[in-house]
């Protein structure tokens, strides 16, 4: 019995080489088609509706409105591309809104955005040109033309006779005062004159009256200074903080 020994010359080398080349070309064509299809899919995904934000939800709202927060966001459902959404930027934008102390933004894999907020409280309110203005504990204030917050803010000190510019500057300084001082104030009246253009009258719960200037108020009404003045001159009604001095009288 004869044993067969393979010899490469038994095959047609030209045909073998041709088949190998055909296989390589076919493989390259398949890879090319797959790459093209993948690129087409990426284009459709990144520039089509599939890659846009599906839904935005807001939770934790009591004083604020979820609908108003969503409306004011730069991110829009079915319009903003999901991959362009920066969570930190969205959190920063939400925290600029009134009554929002903290915002936490999460994204899921299917294009939904969830915003969880922690609210703070109102600190001041007042009327300017018959429009209600409300400020929160972070010093953010807004107009409330529908007076939807009026029943809530009436427990806060009311600001009177302010224009918007001085309302803004007063609120900015007021929120930096210690809580022990804020809790004693029942109302604030803006009483400027030609020589004293930022003078304010702070009416306290116990009937005492403080006169302060907006730009100096934060430095003058520290908790230490407040207690020192009250304890040193307990029987006086009027306390005028002027520079480094306090003038007391009845």
State the strand order across the main sheet. Answer: 6-5-4-7-8-9-10-11-12
Mean pLDDT: 90
What is the 3D form? rod-shaped
The tally of strands reads 12
Q: Indicate the radius of gyration in whole angstroms.
A: 35 Å
Order of helices and strands: HEHHEEEEEHEHHEEEHHEE
- Distance N terminus to C terminus? 135 Å
Strand content: 25-35%
Major sheet attributes: 9 strands, mixed
Low-confidence parts, pLDDT < 50 over ≥5 residues?
none
Q: Give the helix level as a range of percent.
A: 25-40%
Look at the helices and sheets and give the structural class.
alpha/beta
Count of DSSP-assigned helices = 8
Main traits of this protein?
250 residues, alpha/beta, 9-stranded mixed sheet, 3-stranded mixed sheet
Describe this structure in words.
The strands form two sheets. This protein has a nine-stranded mixed β-sheet. It is rod-shaped. The protein starts with 12 loop residues before the first helix and ends with a strand. It contains eight helices and twelve strands. It has helices at residues 13-47, 66-72, 87-95, 150-153, 164-174, 179-182, 214-220, 223-232; strands at residues 55-59, 100-107, 112-119, 122-128, 131-136, 141-144, 158-160, 185-190, 199-204, 209-213, 238-242, 245-249. β8 (185-190) and β9 form a beta hairpin. With 250 residues, the protein is of the alpha/beta class.
Write a brief caption for the model.
Helices cover 35% and strands 27% of the residues. With 250 residues, the chain is an alpha/beta fold.
């Amino acid at each position: 019995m004869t044993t067969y020994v393979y010899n490469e010359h038994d095959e047609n080398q030209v045909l073998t080489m041709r088949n190998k080349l055909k296989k390589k070309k076919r493989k390259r064509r398949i890879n090319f088609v797959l790459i093209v299809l993948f690129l087409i899919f990426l284009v459709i995904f990144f520039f089509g509706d599939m890659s846009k934000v599906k839904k935005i939800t807001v939770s934790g709202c009591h004083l604020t409105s979820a609908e108003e927060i969503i409306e004011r966001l730069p991110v829009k459902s079915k319009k903003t591309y999901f991959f362009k959404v920066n969570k930190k930027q969205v959190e920063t934008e939400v925290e600029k809104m009134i009554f929002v102390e903290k915002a936490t933004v999460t994204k899921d894999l299917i294009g939904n955005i969830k915003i969880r907020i922690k609210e703070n409280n109102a600190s001041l309110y007042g009327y300017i040109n018959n429009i209600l203005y409300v400020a929160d504990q972070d010093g953010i204030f807004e107009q409330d033309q529908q007076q939807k917050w009026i029943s809530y803010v009436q427990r806060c000190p009311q600001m009177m006779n302010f224009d918007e510019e001085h309302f803004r500057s007063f609120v900015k300084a007021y929120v930096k005062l210690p809580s022990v001082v804020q809790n004693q104030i029942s109302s604030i009246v803006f009483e400027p004159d030609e020589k004293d253009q930022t003078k304010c009258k702070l009416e306290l719960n116990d009937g005492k009256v403080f006169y302060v200037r907006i730009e100096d108020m934060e430095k003058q009404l520290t908790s230490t200074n407040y207690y020192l003045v009250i304890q040193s001159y307990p029987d006086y009604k009027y306390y005028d903080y002027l520079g480094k001095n306090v003038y007391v009288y009845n």
